[in-house]
Amino acid sequence: MKLDIGNSLKILTKDCVFAQSKKAKECNEMLETGGGKGRDFLGWLSPSSITKIDMNDIKATAYNFCINCEVVVVIGIGGSYLGSKAVISALSNSFGYTINKRPTIVYAGYNINEDYLYELLEYLKNKVFGIVSISKSGATIEPALSFRFLKKYLESIDGKENAKKRIVVITDKVDGPLRMLANQEGYKTYAIPNNIGGRFSVLTPAGLLPIAIAGIDIDQLINGAVDMEKETSSNIPFEKNLSELYAVVRNELYKIGKKIEILVNFHPKLYYVSEWWKQLYAESEGKEFKGIFTAAVNFTTDLHSMGQWIQESERTIFETVISIANSKHKLEVPLDEQNFDELNFLSGKRVDYINKMAELGTQIAHVDGGVPNIRIEISELNEYCLGQLLYFFERACGISGYLLGVNPFNQPGVEAYKKNMFNLLKKSGC
Q: First-to-last CA distance in the chain?
């Protein structure tokens, strides 16, 4: 994995960035020693802590779903589902072909929409399905509501005893209504560690079980994360430490008025990686009336819409581009004798090469237009590289939050809408 900050140094200076190296190193050390705010939520920092026994158990549960289900419904909201959806979407066939006849994975519990839930229940008719219900607290209304409907429906068609064989709950180890229900009903359970918040949970059972059900190699995903943990430790010099560099550059851009960070990809399979990233940084840094606003675009598609805004809007933005060095497949543009589309100048060239030139051309145009650019390159779209990317962003997020002066591991503002909603719904005790 590579990080190129050169196109940000046209607005910042190298001295400005390196002047923050000591502070970045201190923030990184605070993560490692637990010396900063949110010290009780640093369990994600060491992906190597998940044991081989844990991994084998997750894979065994995934296999049981595979042999017993056509469809698996993953219930969760925010970090409870976005991490797994990001990885599964990135590594699955674009048109829905499952890996080795794995179950189709669908999602619930990330909205409160009557039509969506009704259509999901209709979709599940005459299908053998299972449920993975993920909620650390067990009390979040969106997943709890979906689980109530889906559990009742599964029990109505299979009976309680058979239904519970196809229900897995991932929640707090000891407390909460979902844990109590799971213990009462005898569901297979996994714990989200108490020291890991939802948006940092992709490399825990909350993310790994759905990913394994989809037929994706979770060992390689963890291996990538473990190697990135080593490469971003505070022992690595600042100029080589990708997470420290990224955290500093984005904060220095923020200081000079670049208040919006746009995550850019040139591969449609990275759409949900962007959605996961948006939550990770927005929920971690958007507090105390400060924090970079996170947005995302998918190029070249959005170049025909958002591209205009990026090129000529207010200069309050910067871009972070995720680039994939090597395409998985190879397609060359064929020669057409009639050449009505006037594309013969491209004949013999790979589609990926054309896409790379679109990426480079966009970068030049945006930088020339006053939009600083950070470029992240992974060698290919596979489990190992995604594990590296996810951990890099998590580590950088912790450092960046400390540089900003906030607690990157709480989310007090999320509770405001819940309180109002429960009051309006007349929930007892609110």
A: 48
Which tokens in the block code for residue 333? 């543009």
How do residues 344-380 score in pLDDT, each as one tens digit?
Answer: 999 999 999 999 999 999 999 999 999 999 999 999 9
Q: Which residues belong to the active site?
A: 283, 304, 418
> DSSP of 307-346, one letter per residue?
HHHHHHS-S-EEEEEEEEEE-SS--BPPP-SS-TT--GGG
Candidates 139, 199, 169, 217; CA nearest to 73 is: 169
**Residue 226, φ and ψ in degrees, nearest 5:** -65, -45
β-pair type (2-4, 373-380): antiparallel
Angle between helices 383-404 and 21-33 (to 10 degrees): 110
Contact 282, 294 (CB under 8 A): yes
Q: Which pLDDT score, from 0 to 100, does residue 380 have?
A: 96
pLDDT of 99 higher than 60: no
Per the CB < 8 A criterion, the answer to whether 248 and 24 are in contact is: yes
User: Tens of pLDDT along 120-137?
Assistant: 999 999 999 999 999 988
- The answer for residues whose C-beta is within 8 angstroms of residue 396's C-beta and 6 or more apart is 232, 242, 243, 244, 246, 247
Of the candidates 110, 111, 102, 90, which has an alpha carbon nearest to the alpha carbon of residue 130? 102
pLDDT (tens digit per residue) in 180-222:
999 999 999 999 888 999 899 999 999 999 999 999 999 999 9
**Contact between 127 and 243 (Cβ < 8 Å):** no
| Residue with the two structure tokens 């064989």 | 165
C-beta of residue 131 within 8 angstroms of C-beta of residue 166: yes
Q: Strand, coil or helix: what is 300? A: coil
Dist. CA 296–CA 293, nearest whole Å: 10
Furthest C-alpha separation in the chain: 75
Ordered domains of the chain (ranges, CATH) = 2-38+222-404 (3.40.50.10490), 44-219 (3.40.50.10490)
Helix segments in 176-241, DSSP class H = 177-185, 205-213, 218-231
Angstrom CA distances, 230 to 120, 216, 237, 385, stand at: 42, 23, 12, 15
| Residue 98 clears pLDDT 70, i.e. is over it | no
